[in-house]
Design a protein that fits this description.
It is built from eight helices and nine strands. It has two domains: about 35 residues, no CATH class; about 160 residues, no CATH class. The protein has a seven-stranded mixed sheet, sandwiched between helices. It has a two-stranded antiparallel sheet with strand order 4-8. A hairpin with a 5-residue loop joins strand 6 and strand 7. It is an alpha+beta fold.
Length: about 220
């Protein structure tokens, strides 16, 4: 991981000199500094022009998953259904290998990913969600990513929410009406699970969460 103190030591020293000068001139007081130090990082980000904070998304969970060594992209969804299909209250039959073979990021055996779960706080479009995921340097794993989360981390997901694994619209399966299906995992309050396809052109609301898959090494450096 990067060490900001080591890398930016000269810059930090310059800021300390500048701050002391402002103390002498009365531009900054001890009360100002005490107030700022008590702020959370989120509040500091909101007050700073350096960082744009999107309050429509709230980070609620972070965990790591690893792609199994025997993973085969061509048959991953069929294998998942065979091993776990009966564990679902509802399972959409269209989440199959043929329909989702063109996923943007094809997982590879042994690949390690960090998954950030973002809660949605207001009604949003799929374009809004994709823009946020791209700002997080997410990779789009589609239905295959949902399967790994269910296999490895389903017990960590808060109940009563729906967990969406986005992809670019062009990579999503299109039904006979021309609607693009977005895979997501329903984690019901009673403990049952659903494997569902939502409509890309529909809206998402505060009952939904984004599954943000990030390269593990990339996440360590951010």
């Amino acid at each position: 991981m990067k060490n900001p103190i080591g890398v930016d030591a000269a810059k930090l020293a310059g800021l300390q000199i500048d701050m002391l000068q402002k103390f002498r001139n009365g531009q900054i007081t001890v009360n100002h500094l005490e107030w700022f130090n008590k702020l959370s990082k989120r509040d500091r980000d909101k007050l700073s022009w350096l960082t744009a904070v999107d309050d429509r998304f709230i980070l609620v969970k972070t965990f790591t998953i690893t792609v199994p060594e025997n993973y085969n992209h061509l048959t991953a969804l069929a294998t998942f259904k065979k091993e776990h299909g009966k564990k679902f209250y509802y399972y959409n039959e269209n989440t199959n290998d043929e329909n989702f073979k063109n996923v943007s990021a094809k997982l590879t055996p042994g690949q390690k990913l960090t998954v950030k779960v973002f809660g949605i706080t207001e009604r949003l479009s799929s374009e809004d969600c994709l823009a946020h995921l791209k700002s997080q340097k997410a990779i789009f794993t589609g239905a295959q990513g949902v399967c790994l989360v269910f296999e490895q981390k389903r017990e960590e997901l808060p109940k009563g929410k729906w967990y969406i694994s986005f992809d670019e619209k062009r990579a999503l399966w299109k039904d006979s009406d021309g609607d693009r299906g977005v895979p997501y995992l329903g984690c019901r309050s009673d403990g049952d699970f659903n494997f569902v396809l939502g409509d890309f052109d529909g809206d998402w609301h505060d009952g939904h969460c984004l599954l943000c898959f990030c390269d593990f090494e990339e996440f360590l450096e951010t």
